[in-house]
Protein: Enoyl-CoA hydratase domain-containing protein 3, mitochondrial
Amino acid sequence: MTLKNTMTGNYLLREDNDSVATIIMDTPERRNALSSQMMEALHAELEAIATDRTIHAVILAANGPVFCAGHDLKELKTISHCDGHAALFAQCSDLMVRIVTLPQPVIARVHGMATAAGCQLVASCDLAVATQSARFATPGVNIGLFCSTPMVALSRNIGRKHAMRMLLTGDPITADQAWQMGLISDVVADDMLENVTQELAEKIAAKSASTVKIGKEAFYRQIEMPLNAAYDYASSVMTANMQTTDAGEGIGAFVEKRPPTWRHE
Structure:
């Protein structure tokens, strides 16, 4: 096992444990709000990871009592013109799309509160592990700012009625409710969060990175297609996947009853 700790500016920490990179939001005094600087730092780190063939899975975590409180409302208040607000929301959208399009799976490691764009951040990740005490909310309606961009990720993860209830009331939901709705993939005891998330990331990182990349991209593309188009697309993906080195190795290893040796290509 190799462990590397690095600082990434004043907003993030990064810990690499073999082929798993953990990005830690590190502005607990600001409730890890998604300021323009925080979003810039996150986007830059993800861009670096996207082309790093040694990293096969990513964990997104946070320091302090809150996972992420969403947009920095003080920053929003200081922007006095429409173009500035448009640029900030576009920056947030670009960050969420970068998570979805990242070649490596991204797992949110959630504790405390994840609200508004912080809830959007969780919904944008491929998987999310949360503590029993975690809470999730889209409370913008309570301050006259409907959570319209968080709605995009939220409504692609949970049922319409559940999404609308969260958006229209602003009420927080528990981790168990979030799991039942499909917003998160796992609920664990508070003291098990890091271990369970790391084990999950390592299990995924042990697979063929090229196969996981193919599958992640295909998942998000097919899910928006009509049924017949989705099957046509998925069939073409599987056909291309069959031609890869790792598919040949994996099938051969299964037939020969031995562990595969991945080349990640």
